[in-house]
Amino acid sequence: MMGVDFPVFYNSLTAGLLNFGDVAHGLIKSVTFGLMMAIASCYFGLSVKGGGPGVGRAVNAAVVASATGIFILDYIVSFVIG
C-alpha cells in the first residue's frame, strides 16, 4: 500500500535476526495448531447433549483436547521440521 518493495520490507522486519526458515517454521506451526483447535472444537461442539451443562462440558473437553493436541503437535512438528 505504501510502495515498499517486499525485500526491503522483509529485511527491515527481520533486521538480520531471522531467516526465511524461522518465519516458515512459525507459519507451519500456527496453521497446524489452528487446525488442531478447529477439529477438536467442531468434534466436541457437534456431539453436545444435555443442554447448557452439556455445552459447558463440551467446551471444557475441547479446551483440554486442544491444549493436549498442541503440546503433542508442537513436539512432532519441531522434530520433523528440525
Description:
It is a single chain. This protein has helices at residues 6-14, 20-46, 51-81. The longest helix is centred in the C-terminal third of the chain and has 31 residues, at 51-81. The chain is mostly helical and 82 residues long. It contains three helices and no strands. Helix 2 packs antiparallel against helix 3 (51-81).
Describe how the helices and strands are arranged.
Elements: H1 6-14, H2 20-46, H3 51-81
Distance between the termini: 35 Å
Count of discrete alpha- or pi-helical segments spanning 4 or more residues: 3
- State the order of secondary-structure elements, H for helix, E for strand: HHH
Low confidence ranges = none
pLDDT averaged residue by residue: 89
Q: Mind describing the biggest β-sheet?
A: none
Counting helices, strands and paired strands, the structural category is mainly alpha
Please tell me what the overall shape is: elongated
Q: How many runs of DSSP E, i.e. beta strands?
A: 0
Radius of gyration: 19 Å
In helices, the fraction of residues equals over 70%
* Beta-strand proportion: under 5%
